[in-house]
């Protein structure tokens, strides 16, 4: 199975299946897709996604982005609006408290997102939809604009919850940099003058190892363990976590 799906009208669309877990299982194919903008999907791409089993589309973009570049509507999936931004601000304070400015631009933002109450609510919706996605031949796609930051955090949380090791999670995140070799096309779609300046800047900043590992540091610092974070911040207790592993690994 291909990891990178070069569908017309999609940016940075990737399969999350096939990764091994520490439990000796593998993440199932045809269950989870991560992506950037999908506002330009062609009929050919929609046909592929229908055959893939797509039923749920979760959109992490801001309301402004969703209005400017609306997801293509279709009769075989439902789009759920789930903006990660604007954050409430409590995550920024927590991130700065443990770093004193030591982390990169992206690293501090990522930490703020996973510690912020609004950010946590957005990713709680992702996990809740994953539990709803409980039928055979049925899949979920989550996306933002670039498929790197808001989507990258979502992929990290999913892979970590399902038992994938940190090195593999980091490699999946850094794959985005390969997808961005065609900078002109990316900039045209993601760096619009009508867009939010902070989001534009994030979209055009390359992913790096330190930024993604900073998330692990923040969660461990404030929650003690990732399992505790899942439970307290995202509402995924031990039983729900077992159910997720049952649904998404084999």
UniProtKB/TrEMBL annotation:
Entries under InterPro entries matching the protein: Prot-tyrosine_phosphatase-like (IPR029021), Tyr/Ser_Pase_IphP-type (IPR026893), Tyr_Pase_AS (IPR016130)
Segments forming a coiled coil: none
Any one Gene Ontology molecular-function term assigned to this protein's record: phosphoprotein phosphatase activity
SUPFAM superfamilies reported for this sequence: (Phosphotyrosine protein) phosphatases II
Any matching Pfam family: Y_phosphatase3
Family: Belongs to the protein-tyrosine phosphatase family.
UniProt-recorded name of the protein: Tyrosine-protein phosphatase
Taxonomic path: Bacteria, Bacillati, Bacillota, Bacilli, Lactobacillales
């Amino acid at each position: 199975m291909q990891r990178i799906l070069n569908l017309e009208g999609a940016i940075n669309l990737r399969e999350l299946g096939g990764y091994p877990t520490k439990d000796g299982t593998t993440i199932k194919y045809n269950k989870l897709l991560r992506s950037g903008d999908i506002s330009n999907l062609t009929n050919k791409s929609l046909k592929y996604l229908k055959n893939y089993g797509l039923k749920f589309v979760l959109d992490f973009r801001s309301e402004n982005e969703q209005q400017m570049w609306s997801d293509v509507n279709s009769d075989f999936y439902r789009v759920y609006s789930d903006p990660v931004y604007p954050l409430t601000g409590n995550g920024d304070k927590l991130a700065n408290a443990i770093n004193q400015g030591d982390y990169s631009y992206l690293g501090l933002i990522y930490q703020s997102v996973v510690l912020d109450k609004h950010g946590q609510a957005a990713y709680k919706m992702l996990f809740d939809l994953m539990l709803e996605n409980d039928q055979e031949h049925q899949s979920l796609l989550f996306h933002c604009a670039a498929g790197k930051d808001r989507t990258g955090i979502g992929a990290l949380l999913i892979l970590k919850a399902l038992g994938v090791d940190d090195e593999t999670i980091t490699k999946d995140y850094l794959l985005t940099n390969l997808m961005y070799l065609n900078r002109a096309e990316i900039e045209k779609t993601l760096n619009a003058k009508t867009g939010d300046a902070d989001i534009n800047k994030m979209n055009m900043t390359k992913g790096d190892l330190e930024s993604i590992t900073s998330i692990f540091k923040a969660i461990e610092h404030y929650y003690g363990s990732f399992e505790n974070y899942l439970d307290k911040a995202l509402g995924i207790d031990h039983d729900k976590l077992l159910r997720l592993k049952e649904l998404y690994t084999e």
